[in-house]
Every structure is written in C-alpha cells, then in structure tokens.
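CO-FOLDING WORKSHEET

Operator: S.A.
Ligand of interest: magnesium ion
Run index: 246
Mode: holo prediction, single chain
Checklist:
[x] sequence pasted
[x] SMILES validated
[ ] output reviewed
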Amino acid sequence: MHTIVLATQKGGSGKSTLVVGLALAAKQAGFTVRLIETDLQGTLSNWRRRRTADDLVVEPIYHAIDIEPRLKMLADSGLQLAIIDTAAGLSAATTAAIRHCDLCLIPARPSVADIEATASTLSVARAWKRPYSFVLNQTPIRGQRIDNAANTLAEEAAHDLTEVLARPLIVMRNDHQDSLAAGLAVSEFAPNSKSADEVRGLWQWIETRLELAATTNVRSDQVVTATDGMLHAAELSSDKTTILAS
Ligand SMILES: Nc1ncnc2c1ncn2[C@@H]1O[C@H](COP(=O)(O)OP(=O)(O)OP(=O)(O)O)[C@@H](O)[C@H]1O
Ligand SMILES: [Mg+2]
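OUTPUT RECEIVED:
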C-alpha cells in the first residue's frame, strides 16, 4: 500500500481539495483508495456527505496513536492507496501521518507567506526521512510569480527543482471549488477541463515518484540535522500523549 499525506502549516493552501482530486484520479487509474481525515474541521467528511456515489470511504482518525495501526490494517486488507488530509498547523496527528507516509506532499500557493509556512512540514519530513514534494497550487496561468515561487521552494529544500516540485502546477480555477461543493472531484465535475487534466497529470507524476521512492534508499542528504533532531524528539514525546493538538 502507498500512503500519501498532504500537509502544510498554512491554512487554505489546497490540502483537502488536492486530496479529493488525487483520490478520484487514482481511483480512475485503477487504484483502490481510502481517504483519511485527521482534520477536525471535517472538510472531507462534509464533502463525502454531499456526494451521492458511495464509492469512497472517508475515515476520520483524530489521534496520532491510531494512525500507524490503522494504516497497517488497511495495508493488510489489500488496500492500494491511503491519502491523508491534515489540519493546518503542525499537530501530533500530522507528524504521525508524515512519519508513516511514503510521500509527503506540501502544497503552497505562490506567495511568500505560503512558501515560508512550508518550512516546518519540510523539517518533519526530513526528520523522519520521508520523501516529500511541493505542489504549487492556485497559481496564475503563467508568469514570473510562478518561477519565483518555484525557485524559492527549490532553494528552501536545497534541491534540484525537478525533484522537489511536483508537476504540473495546479492553476487557480473555479472547477476546484465547484466540484467540492457538488460532492465531486474535479475529474468528475469537469472531466474534459484543464483543471481535471492537471490533477490527473499530478497523479501520474506522483505514481512515478512513489515507484522511485519505493526502489531507492533514503538519500544521503536527508540527514537528521540538529533542528530536525529536536522535532524528532518532540514527535517521540507527543506520541506518548497522542492528543490532537489542533
Ligand atoms: N487550484 C485551485 N483553484 C481554485 N480554488 C482552489 C484551488 N485549490 C483550492 N481551492 C480553494 O481554496 C480554498 C481552500 O482550499 P482547501 O480547503 O483545499 O485548503 P486546505 O489547505 O485544506 O485548508 P485548511 O488548512 O483550512 O484545511 C477552497 O475554497 C478550495 O475550493
Ligand atoms: Mg483542509
């Protein structure tokens, strides 16, 4: 089973929207998918209530301690893909989700505030030596703003852009908001639209990234730095309390 987590400290960057979009894109590509909601805000559960098809389960897991055993049970049951939506901020549940994922996707709008807010999530992913990628979301169709944002993310991660930035970028389009409101994913709401193409393209990029992550060892640059080590220690102690902080 592959486990993907969408996480970033910044609210409204598109975590839940991308979770829904990617879940349906993966399902349409033939994967069995389970959505896991660690965010008490309940965006996914609300979306699921608006949905008429009963093809996807949204499973709320609010306590950090429950995440690993539940993922193991799902993997043992033969599920192919779990996608975890997290709350803004950095809670014990979010760090547990990152710790047990195969890929941490960090969405960011092309703004300084969003990009700065990726730092803590990046540190946790590195501390637990989990593969990560940024997803630039709600971008304009083109422009210098995108290039600047992409380059800043690559600098922050001290990595080559092609490795750390998922493709394609997800443009700001009304389809994303309208599909969520209708209990649909964008690939169902507007299957022939550019927005659906982008999300399907993003899923394909992720599939390739997951295969790579499964076959390569942790990279040598993903060493635990002093700061990361402190986060690591904080996670160990928060595991004991297992209380959702947000
Ligand atoms: N590519 C996009 N184009 C247009 N609107 C978008 C796009 N991505 C997300 N949105 C909209 O932006 C808003 C915030 O998105 P979303 O709720 O997915 O963010 P979030 O990171 O999950 O927020 P929170 O941190 O509150 O959980 C929603 O209204 C959503 O429909
Ligand atoms: Mg959300």
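REVIEW:
Confidence is low (pLDDT under 50) at residues 217-246.
The radius of gyration is 17 Å.
[x] output reviewed
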